[in-house]
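User: Batch of two.

Assistant: Item 1 of 2:
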Amino acid sequence: MAYIMFDDNQVVITGKIAMDFTFSHKICGECFYKAELQVKRLSDSVDTIPVLISEQIADITKSRVGEFAEIYGEFHSHNLREENHTRLELYVFAREVKFVEVNDSKTDYTNRILLEGTICKPTVYRKTPLKKEITDLLLAVNRSFGKSDYIPCICWGSTARYAADLKVGTRVMVWGRIQSREYKKRIEENETQKRIAYEVSINTLEVA
Protein backbone atom coordinates (compact mmCIF):
# COMPACT_ATOMS: atom_id res chain seq x y z
CA MET A 1 0.00 0.00 0.00
CA ALA A 2 1.44 3.36 -1.00
CA TYR A 3 1.99 5.83 1.80
CA ILE A 4 1.49 9.59 1.80
CA MET A 5 4.76 11.32 0.89
CA PHE A 6 5.93 14.16 3.12
CA ASP A 7 6.46 17.15 0.84
CA ASP A 8 9.64 18.33 2.58
CA ASN A 9 11.45 14.98 3.01
CA GLN A 10 11.23 12.33 0.29
CA VAL A 11 13.64 9.45 -0.35
CA VAL A 12 13.57 6.70 -2.96
CA ILE A 13 16.43 4.20 -2.96
CA THR A 14 16.85 0.88 -4.75
CA GLY A 15 19.78 -1.36 -3.95
CA LYS A 16 21.11 -4.61 -2.58
CA ILE A 17 20.48 -5.60 1.04
CA ALA A 18 23.88 -5.96 2.70
CA MET A 19 23.04 -7.31 6.17
CA ASP A 20 20.40 -9.30 8.00
CA PHE A 21 17.69 -7.37 9.82
CA THR A 22 18.93 -6.45 13.31
CA PHE A 23 16.60 -5.45 16.13
CA SER A 24 16.82 -1.74 16.95
CA HIS A 25 14.03 -0.79 19.36
CA LYS A 26 10.35 -1.14 20.21
CA ILE A 27 7.74 1.64 20.43
CA CYS A 28 4.11 1.07 21.48
CA GLY A 29 4.43 -2.63 20.71
CA GLU A 30 5.90 -2.06 17.23
CA CYS A 31 9.40 -3.44 16.61
CA PHE A 32 11.89 -1.70 14.33
CA TYR A 33 14.88 -3.30 12.65
CA LYS A 34 18.10 -1.96 11.14
CA ALA A 35 19.36 -2.91 7.70
CA GLU A 36 21.86 -1.59 5.17
CA LEU A 37 21.27 -1.03 1.47
CA GLN A 38 24.17 -0.90 -0.99
CA VAL A 39 23.45 1.50 -3.85
CA LYS A 40 25.86 1.63 -6.76
CA ARG A 41 26.76 4.94 -8.43
CA LEU A 42 27.35 5.34 -12.17
CA SER A 43 31.08 5.48 -11.31
CA ASP A 44 30.74 1.97 -9.77
CA SER A 45 31.42 3.36 -6.29
CA VAL A 46 28.97 2.05 -3.71
CA ASP A 47 27.07 3.99 -1.06
CA THR A 48 26.04 1.93 1.96
CA ILE A 49 22.88 3.49 3.38
CA PRO A 50 21.42 2.59 6.80
CA VAL A 51 17.68 1.90 6.85
CA LEU A 52 15.17 1.52 9.69
CA ILE A 53 12.24 -0.80 8.90
CA SER A 54 9.11 -1.64 10.89
CA GLU A 55 8.07 -5.26 11.26
CA GLN A 56 4.65 -4.14 10.01
CA ILE A 57 5.83 -3.31 6.47
CA ALA A 58 8.30 -6.14 5.73
CA ASP A 59 8.88 -9.77 6.63
CA ILE A 60 11.97 -9.56 8.81
CA THR A 61 11.93 -13.24 9.84
CA LYS A 62 13.95 -14.41 6.82
CA SER A 63 17.34 -13.39 5.50
CA ARG A 64 17.19 -10.98 2.56
CA VAL A 65 20.95 -10.49 2.12
CA GLY A 66 21.79 -10.13 -1.56
CA GLU A 67 18.20 -9.36 -2.59
CA PHE A 68 17.18 -6.05 -4.13
CA ALA A 69 14.77 -3.75 -2.35
CA GLU A 70 13.05 -0.53 -3.37
CA ILE A 71 12.46 1.70 -0.36
CA TYR A 72 10.34 4.83 -0.03
CA GLY A 73 10.69 6.96 3.07
CA GLU A 74 12.38 9.94 4.71
CA PHE A 75 15.93 10.77 5.80
CA HIS A 76 15.95 11.06 9.60
CA SER A 77 18.53 12.06 12.19
CA HIS A 78 19.01 11.05 15.81
CA ASN A 79 21.45 12.21 18.49
CA LEU A 80 23.27 9.08 19.61
CA ARG A 81 24.93 9.26 23.02
CA GLU A 82 28.45 7.82 23.23
CA GLU A 83 30.26 8.04 26.56
CA ASN A 84 30.90 11.76 27.12
CA HIS A 85 29.54 13.11 23.85
CA THR A 86 26.81 12.72 21.24
CA ARG A 87 27.02 12.22 17.50
CA LEU A 88 24.46 12.61 14.75
CA GLU A 89 23.11 9.29 13.48
CA LEU A 90 21.46 9.36 10.04
CA TYR A 91 19.24 6.74 8.41
CA VAL A 92 16.38 6.26 5.96
CA PHE A 93 13.11 5.69 7.81
CA ALA A 94 11.24 3.27 5.55
CA ARG A 95 7.55 3.86 4.88
CA GLU A 96 7.23 1.28 2.12
CA VAL A 97 9.48 -1.62 1.09
CA LYS A 98 9.26 -3.64 -2.12
CA PHE A 99 11.52 -6.61 -2.81
CA VAL A 100 12.25 -6.64 -6.54
CA GLU A 101 13.97 -8.86 -9.10
CA VAL A 102 16.53 -7.04 -11.25
CA ASN A 103 19.60 -7.82 -13.36
CA ASP A 104 22.03 -5.94 -11.09
CA SER A 105 22.96 -3.41 -13.78
CA LYS A 106 23.78 0.24 -13.07
CA THR A 107 20.30 1.31 -14.16
CA ASP A 108 18.70 -0.93 -11.51
CA TYR A 109 19.97 1.30 -8.69
CA THR A 110 18.03 4.37 -7.54
CA ASN A 111 19.17 7.06 -5.11
CA ARG A 112 17.01 10.19 -4.99
CA ILE A 113 16.19 12.61 -2.21
CA LEU A 114 14.21 15.84 -1.97
CA LEU A 115 14.46 18.06 1.12
CA GLU A 116 12.93 21.38 2.04
CA GLY A 117 14.42 22.90 5.15
CA THR A 118 16.12 25.81 6.86
CA ILE A 119 19.86 26.45 6.97
CA CYS A 120 20.63 26.23 10.69
CA LYS A 121 24.43 26.74 10.78
CA PRO A 122 26.73 29.08 8.86
CA THR A 123 27.71 27.55 5.53
CA VAL A 124 31.34 26.48 5.06
CA TYR A 125 32.99 27.12 1.68
CA ARG A 126 36.29 25.42 0.85
CA LYS A 127 38.44 24.10 -1.97
CA THR A 128 39.94 20.65 -2.28
CA PRO A 129 43.63 20.13 -3.13
CA LEU A 130 42.41 19.62 -6.72
CA LYS A 131 40.72 23.06 -6.60
CA LYS A 132 37.17 21.68 -6.54
CA GLU A 133 34.78 24.10 -4.84
CA ILE A 134 32.64 22.70 -2.03
CA THR A 135 30.11 24.19 0.39
CA ASP A 136 28.86 22.31 3.44
CA LEU A 137 25.50 23.20 4.95
CA LEU A 138 23.24 21.79 7.65
CA LEU A 139 19.49 21.73 7.01
CA ALA A 140 16.79 21.54 9.67
CA VAL A 141 13.85 19.69 8.12
CA ASN A 142 10.50 19.64 9.91
CA ARG A 143 9.02 16.32 10.96
CA SER A 144 5.63 15.50 12.48
CA PHE A 145 4.95 15.99 16.21
CA GLY A 146 7.08 19.14 16.34
CA LYS A 147 10.37 17.35 15.70
CA SER A 148 13.12 18.23 13.23
CA ASP A 149 15.81 16.29 11.40
CA TYR A 150 19.25 17.83 10.95
CA ILE A 151 20.70 16.78 7.62
CA PRO A 152 24.29 17.57 6.53
CA CYS A 153 24.51 18.45 2.84
CA ILE A 154 27.34 19.14 0.41
CA CYS A 155 27.29 20.95 -2.93
CA TRP A 156 29.85 21.51 -5.64
CA GLY A 157 31.04 24.01 -8.25
CA SER A 158 28.71 26.87 -9.12
CA THR A 159 26.10 25.56 -6.67
CA ALA A 160 28.74 25.67 -3.93
CA ARG A 161 29.56 29.30 -4.75
CA TYR A 162 25.86 30.20 -4.64
CA ALA A 163 25.20 28.32 -1.39
CA ALA A 164 28.23 29.88 0.32
CA ASP A 165 26.44 33.25 0.51
CA LEU A 166 23.19 31.91 1.99
CA LYS A 167 22.52 32.97 5.57
CA VAL A 168 21.29 31.04 8.59
CA GLY A 169 17.49 31.00 8.50
CA THR A 170 17.25 30.80 4.70
CA ARG A 171 14.70 28.22 3.59
CA VAL A 172 15.82 26.09 0.64
CA MET A 173 14.78 23.10 -1.44
CA VAL A 174 17.46 20.62 -2.49
CA TRP A 175 17.49 17.63 -4.81
CA GLY A 176 20.27 15.07 -4.81
CA ARG A 177 21.36 11.68 -3.49
CA ILE A 178 22.44 10.17 -0.17
CA GLN A 179 26.11 9.32 -0.07
CA SER A 180 28.38 7.55 2.40
CA ARG A 181 32.10 8.11 2.89
CA GLU A 182 34.70 6.65 5.20
CA TYR A 183 36.93 8.79 7.38
CA LYS A 184 39.32 8.31 10.27
CA LYS A 185 38.57 9.90 13.63
CA ARG A 186 41.45 10.42 16.03
CA ILE A 187 40.63 8.78 19.38
CA GLU A 188 43.98 9.29 21.06
CA GLU A 189 47.34 10.66 19.98
CA ASN A 190 48.39 7.39 18.34
CA GLU A 191 44.98 5.83 17.74
CA THR A 192 42.39 6.40 15.03
CA GLN A 193 39.02 4.80 14.37
CA LYS A 194 37.41 4.23 10.98
CA ARG A 195 33.91 5.66 10.72
CA ILE A 196 31.30 6.31 8.03
CA ALA A 197 29.70 9.70 7.45
CA TYR A 198 26.42 10.20 5.62
CA GLU A 199 25.32 13.34 3.79
CA VAL A 200 23.19 14.57 0.92
CA SER A 201 25.15 15.37 -2.23
CA ILE A 202 23.15 18.19 -3.81
CA ASN A 203 22.49 18.34 -7.54
CA THR A 204 20.06 21.28 -7.47
CA LEU A 205 19.41 23.95 -4.82
CA GLU A 206 16.71 26.63 -4.83
CA VAL A 207 15.68 29.23 -2.26
CA ALA A 208 12.14 28.28 -1.22
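Item 2 of 2:
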Amino acid sequence: MTRRMILPLLFGIAGTALLIWLGLWQMQRLAWKEAILADLDARIAGAPVSLPAQVDPVDDAFLPVTATGTILADEIIVQSSLKLVGPGFRVIAPFETGGRRILLDRGFIRLTDRDRVRPEVTATITGNLHWPDEVDGFTPDPDVAGGMWFARDIDSLAAALNTEPVLLVARTTSENPLAVTPLPVASAGIPNDHLQYAVTWFLMAVVWVGMTLYLLVTLRRRASEG
Protein backbone atom coordinates (compact mmCIF):
# COMPACT_ATOMS: atom_id res chain seq x y z
CA MET A 1 0.00 0.00 0.00
CA THR A 2 1.36 3.40 -1.00
CA ARG A 3 1.03 6.63 0.95
CA ARG A 4 -1.37 7.94 -1.67
CA MET A 5 -3.77 5.11 -0.77
CA ILE A 6 -3.92 5.78 2.98
CA LEU A 7 -6.08 8.91 2.87
CA PRO A 8 -8.69 7.44 0.43
CA LEU A 9 -8.79 4.27 2.55
CA LEU A 10 -9.42 6.22 5.77
CA PHE A 11 -11.99 8.38 4.00
CA GLY A 12 -13.72 5.26 2.68
CA ILE A 13 -13.80 3.59 6.10
CA ALA A 14 -15.13 6.74 7.79
CA GLY A 15 -17.81 7.27 5.14
CA THR A 16 -18.92 3.64 5.26
CA ALA A 17 -19.09 3.70 9.06
CA LEU A 18 -21.17 6.88 9.01
CA LEU A 19 -23.63 5.51 6.44
CA ILE A 20 -24.04 2.23 8.34
CA TRP A 21 -24.59 4.18 11.57
CA LEU A 22 -27.30 6.24 9.87
CA GLY A 23 -28.98 3.05 8.66
CA LEU A 24 -28.89 1.53 12.15
CA TRP A 25 -30.25 4.78 13.60
CA GLN A 26 -33.19 4.60 11.20
CA MET A 27 -33.83 1.00 12.28
CA GLN A 28 -34.01 2.23 15.88
CA ARG A 29 -36.41 4.95 14.78
CA LEU A 30 -38.48 2.29 13.00
CA ALA A 31 -38.84 0.28 16.21
CA TRP A 32 -39.76 3.46 18.11
CA LYS A 33 -42.38 4.44 15.52
CA GLU A 34 -43.89 0.96 15.38
CA ALA A 35 -44.26 0.96 19.17
CA ILE A 36 -46.05 4.32 19.04
CA LEU A 37 -48.39 3.09 16.30
CA ALA A 38 -49.12 -0.10 18.23
CA ASP A 39 -50.04 1.94 21.31
CA LEU A 40 -52.21 4.21 19.16
CA ASP A 41 -54.00 1.25 17.56
CA ALA A 42 -54.67 -0.21 21.01
CA ARG A 43 -56.11 3.10 22.22
CA ILE A 44 -58.29 3.54 19.13
CA ALA A 45 -59.72 0.04 19.49
CA GLY A 46 -60.22 0.28 23.26
CA ALA A 47 -63.53 -0.09 25.07
CA PRO A 48 -65.66 3.02 24.44
CA VAL A 49 -66.68 5.31 27.29
CA SER A 50 -69.21 8.09 27.65
CA LEU A 51 -68.30 11.53 26.36
CA PRO A 52 -66.22 13.19 29.13
CA ALA A 53 -67.73 16.25 30.78
CA GLN A 54 -64.46 18.10 30.30
CA VAL A 55 -62.61 17.25 27.11
CA ASP A 56 -58.88 17.80 26.70
CA PRO A 57 -57.39 17.71 23.17
CA VAL A 58 -54.18 16.11 24.44
CA ASP A 59 -55.34 13.68 27.11
CA ASP A 60 -58.48 12.66 25.20
CA ALA A 61 -56.98 12.37 21.71
CA PHE A 62 -58.30 9.19 20.02
CA LEU A 63 -60.41 8.35 23.09
CA PRO A 64 -63.04 5.72 22.17
CA VAL A 65 -66.49 7.16 22.88
CA THR A 66 -70.07 6.01 22.48
CA ALA A 67 -72.99 8.44 22.57
CA THR A 68 -76.66 8.52 21.66
CA GLY A 69 -78.20 11.66 20.28
CA THR A 70 -79.54 13.51 17.28
CA ILE A 71 -77.57 14.09 14.11
CA LEU A 72 -78.82 17.40 12.75
CA ALA A 73 -79.45 18.09 9.09
CA ASP A 74 -77.08 21.08 9.03
CA GLU A 75 -73.76 19.89 7.70
CA ILE A 76 -70.46 20.89 6.17
CA ILE A 77 -68.63 18.80 3.63
CA VAL A 78 -64.84 18.50 3.65
CA GLN A 79 -62.87 17.45 0.59
CA SER A 80 -61.47 13.96 1.00
CA SER A 81 -60.70 10.77 -0.89
CA LEU A 82 -61.01 7.06 -0.30
CA LYS A 83 -58.65 4.41 -1.62
CA LEU A 84 -60.15 2.38 -4.49
CA VAL A 85 -63.09 4.81 -4.61
CA GLY A 86 -61.55 8.16 -5.45
CA PRO A 87 -62.40 11.73 -4.49
CA GLY A 88 -65.38 12.61 -2.36
CA PHE A 89 -66.26 14.36 0.86
CA ARG A 90 -66.38 13.85 4.60
CA VAL A 91 -69.69 14.90 6.13
CA ILE A 92 -69.41 16.94 9.33
CA ALA A 93 -72.68 17.54 11.18
CA PRO A 94 -73.76 18.86 14.59
CA PHE A 95 -74.51 16.06 17.05
CA GLU A 96 -76.72 16.81 20.05
CA THR A 97 -76.13 14.38 22.90
CA GLY A 98 -76.73 14.65 26.64
CA GLY A 99 -77.54 18.34 26.46
CA ARG A 100 -74.37 19.09 24.51
CA ARG A 101 -73.70 19.91 20.88
CA ILE A 102 -70.48 18.60 19.33
CA LEU A 103 -69.12 17.92 15.86
CA LEU A 104 -69.69 14.52 14.28
CA ASP A 105 -67.61 13.24 11.38
CA ARG A 106 -70.23 10.94 9.88
CA GLY A 107 -67.89 9.54 7.23
CA PHE A 108 -67.44 9.51 3.47
CA ILE A 109 -69.74 10.22 0.54
CA ARG A 110 -69.04 10.10 -3.19
CA LEU A 111 -69.01 13.25 -5.30
CA THR A 112 -72.39 12.28 -6.74
CA ASP A 113 -73.95 12.22 -3.26
CA ARG A 114 -72.98 15.77 -2.38
CA ASP A 115 -76.45 17.27 -2.86
CA ARG A 116 -78.41 14.33 -1.49
CA VAL A 117 -80.62 15.27 1.47
CA ARG A 118 -79.53 13.71 4.76
CA PRO A 119 -82.35 14.41 7.24
CA GLU A 120 -82.13 14.71 11.00
CA VAL A 121 -81.85 11.30 12.64
CA THR A 122 -81.43 9.84 16.13
CA ALA A 123 -78.59 7.35 16.41
CA THR A 124 -76.03 5.76 18.69
CA ILE A 125 -72.52 6.55 17.52
CA THR A 126 -69.35 4.77 18.54
CA GLY A 127 -66.08 6.32 17.45
CA ASN A 128 -63.05 8.29 18.58
CA LEU A 129 -62.43 11.85 19.62
CA HIS A 130 -60.02 13.47 17.21
CA TRP A 131 -58.34 16.82 16.64
CA PRO A 132 -56.79 16.39 13.18
CA ASP A 133 -53.91 18.63 12.16
CA GLU A 134 -54.76 19.14 8.50
CA VAL A 135 -54.41 22.89 7.99
CA ASP A 136 -51.18 24.38 6.66
CA GLY A 137 -50.10 27.39 4.67
CA PHE A 138 -51.32 25.84 1.42
CA THR A 139 -54.85 25.03 2.61
CA PRO A 140 -57.44 27.20 0.82
CA ASP A 141 -59.90 29.19 2.88
CA PRO A 142 -63.22 27.41 3.33
CA ASP A 143 -66.14 28.14 1.03
CA VAL A 144 -68.45 29.23 3.83
CA ALA A 145 -71.32 30.14 1.52
CA GLY A 146 -71.14 26.77 -0.22
CA GLY A 147 -70.63 24.84 3.00
CA MET A 148 -67.39 23.22 1.82
CA TRP A 149 -64.09 23.03 3.70
CA PHE A 150 -60.73 21.81 2.42
CA ALA A 151 -59.51 20.48 5.77
CA ARG A 152 -61.00 19.56 9.11
CA ASP A 153 -60.25 22.77 11.00
CA ILE A 154 -62.04 22.04 14.27
CA ASP A 155 -62.28 25.63 15.50
CA SER A 156 -63.73 27.02 12.28
CA LEU A 157 -66.09 24.05 11.85
CA ALA A 158 -67.33 24.46 15.42
CA ALA A 159 -67.88 28.18 14.89
CA ALA A 160 -69.78 27.59 11.65
CA LEU A 161 -72.02 24.87 13.12
CA ASN A 162 -72.33 26.42 16.59
CA THR A 163 -70.87 23.45 18.48
CA GLU A 164 -68.17 22.73 21.00
CA PRO A 165 -64.72 22.36 19.39
CA VAL A 166 -64.93 18.60 19.88
CA LEU A 167 -64.99 16.13 16.98
CA LEU A 168 -66.30 12.57 17.27
CA VAL A 169 -65.26 10.49 14.25
CA ALA A 170 -67.82 7.73 13.73
CA ARG A 171 -66.67 4.11 13.62
CA THR A 172 -70.11 2.53 13.83
CA THR A 173 -73.62 3.94 13.82
CA SER A 174 -77.07 2.57 14.51
CA GLU A 175 -78.52 4.46 11.54
CA ASN A 176 -80.63 2.31 9.25
CA PRO A 177 -80.45 2.82 6.36
CA LEU A 178 -76.88 4.08 6.39
CA ALA A 179 -76.72 7.56 4.86
CA VAL A 180 -72.94 7.98 5.06
CA THR A 181 -70.13 5.41 5.06
CA PRO A 182 -68.12 5.75 8.30
CA LEU A 183 -64.47 6.58 7.76
CA PRO A 184 -63.01 5.85 11.20
CA VAL A 185 -59.79 7.04 12.77
CA ALA A 186 -56.85 4.76 11.95
CA SER A 187 -53.08 4.83 12.24
CA ALA A 188 -52.65 3.72 8.61
CA GLY A 189 -52.41 7.31 7.41
CA ILE A 190 -49.52 8.17 9.73
CA PRO A 191 -46.23 8.10 7.77
CA ASN A 192 -43.67 5.48 8.78
CA ASP A 193 -40.85 5.62 6.23
CA HIS A 194 -37.96 4.68 8.50
CA LEU A 195 -37.40 1.27 6.88
CA GLN A 196 -37.13 2.94 3.48
CA TYR A 197 -34.65 5.45 4.89
CA ALA A 198 -32.60 2.65 6.49
CA VAL A 199 -32.42 0.70 3.23
CA THR A 200 -31.32 3.87 1.44
CA TRP A 201 -28.45 4.47 3.90
CA PHE A 202 -27.32 0.83 3.72
CA LEU A 203 -27.35 0.89 -0.09
CA MET A 204 -25.33 4.11 -0.03
CA ALA A 205 -22.83 2.36 2.25
CA VAL A 206 -22.48 -0.45 -0.31
CA VAL A 207 -21.95 2.08 -3.09
CA TRP A 208 -19.41 3.94 -0.94
CA VAL A 209 -17.46 0.73 -0.36
CA GLY A 210 -17.51 -0.01 -4.09
CA MET A 211 -16.29 3.47 -4.98
CA THR A 212 -13.53 3.25 -2.36
CA LEU A 213 -12.33 -0.12 -3.66
CA TYR A 214 -12.37 1.16 -7.23
CA LEU A 215 -10.29 4.19 -6.24
CA LEU A 216 -7.79 2.06 -4.30
CA VAL A 217 -7.39 -0.39 -7.19
CA THR A 218 -6.88 2.50 -9.61
CA LEU A 219 -4.24 4.11 -7.37
CA ARG A 220 -2.44 0.81 -6.91
CA ARG A 221 -2.39 0.13 -10.65
CA ARG A 222 -1.00 3.59 -11.36
CA ALA A 223 1.65 3.11 -8.67
CA SER A 224 2.73 -0.23 -10.16
CA GLU A 225 2.86 1.25 -13.66
CA GLY A 226 4.93 4.16 -12.44
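The longest strand covers residues 86-97.
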